[in-house]
Write a structure and sequence with these properties.
11 helices, alpha/beta, about 40% helix, binds NADP nicotinamide-adenine-dinucleotide phosphate, 6-stranded mixed beta sheet, 6-stranded parallel beta sheet
């Protein structure tokens, strides 16, 4: 390894197959910067993580992405950490950058989702949104729809099998925007999908071939935008049913790309990231998906 090499990487546990190294290494290559940069993976168990972060190897890492199960925990484990306001609001980060004085935490899932939705032509202003699932990704989605930028949706209904998680998202949004209309419901039927403009699947249901269709297909309609955060498979049962109902739809590949682009901008210190670099990152993702 050259002495000036900068190391970046993804922390998580267990880390299955991930496309982040493909995407970021393609970005560094396309950027053609003088500094030698490499993006790798750090699969660290809860017992290993703290000592890793304090080790020479950990301290030498210039920037991390963070995934399940550490998006919240990482904020306690890194000392001398400043939080971007989005991280402060959501309580979870997916990008940590080493600075001259310590570290800074960002949540690029928020802008990644918002940017993709925008590029797909969905104008969220005044719309009614229904969210399935209330885990880490749903926190970012709910924030993006209600508090990020100046064109929020009108209302959000949210359902999770664990009601307390959905309540926690509602509390988080109310803390930022007390007047915002967010309702936790007890069943998918109560999500009011028929009256909604957008339905977001932020559960893992659809990742496996054997997974059921998560909603009754009769609830889907042509005026609905169905956004499934899952990108592999590219077309889940939910997206198939949405197409059949003539709804507009999108998988989560764009969100993955744009959260990656926003993190890459911090890693490489370039903003905006040049278009050809983003294109290379996108191609690397698509190529990587063929081999999963
Ligand atoms: P997570 O923290 O595990 O959250 C998923 C939530 O969905 C959990 O609260 C889970 O409850 C709940 N759930 C499971 N089955 C459900 C059902 N049938 N109905 C309602 N709620 C249900 O996972 P995550 O990190 O938020 O990720 C969620 C999905 O988004 C995953 O598929 C992930 O791959 C995808 N994702 C995509 C991107 C992207 O860039 N495209 C980024 C992040 C995540 P339990 O915990 O009780 O099971």
């Amino acid at each position: 390894m050259s002495k000036n090499k900068k190391i970046f990487g993804l922390i998580g546990y267990p880390l299955g197959h991930t496309l982040s190294p493909n995407m970021h290494n393609a970005g560094f290559k396309a950027l053609g910067i003088d500094v030698d940069c490499e993006y790798t993976t750090f699969s660290k168990s809860p017992d290993e993580l703290k000592s890793f972060l304090l080790s020479e190897e950990g301290k030498n890492v210039s920037g991390f992405n963070v995934t399940v199960p550490y998006k919240e925990k990482i904020l306690e484990l890194i000392t001398n950490l400043k939080q971007h306001e989005t991280v402060e609001a959501i309580g979870a980060a997916n990008t940590i950058i080493k600075t001259e004085t310590g570290y800074k935490a960002y949540n690029t899932d928020v802008c990644g989702f918002a940017q993709d939705l925008n590029l797909k032509g969905f104008n969220k202003e005044g719309k009614k949104a229904a969210i399935l699932g209330a885990g880490g990704a749903a926190r970012a989605v709910a924030y993006a729809l209600s508090c990020f930028a100046d064109t929020p949706v009108r209302e959000i209904t949210i359902y999770d099998i664990d009601n307390a998680k959905a309540e926690s998202i509602a509390k988080m949004i109310k803390n930022v925007k007390n007047e915002f209309n967010i309702k936790v419901v007890d069943s998918i039927a109560d999500l009011e999908i028929k009256k909604s403009d957008i339905l977001i699947n932020a559960t893992p249901i659809g990742l496996k071939k054997s997974d059921p269709l998560i909603v009754d297909e009769n609830l889907l309609h042509k005026d609905l935008f169905v956004y499934d955060l899952i990108y592999n498979p590219a077309e889940t049962k939910l997206l198939k049913a949405a197409k059949k109902a003539q709804a507009s739809c999108s998988n989560g590949l764009g969100m993955l790309l744009y959260q990656g682009e926003a993190a890459f901008a911090k890693f490489a210190g370039v903003c905006p990231v040049p278009e050809n670099v983003v294109e290379s990152m996108k191609t690397a993702l698509k190529e990587g998906l063929k081999n999963v």
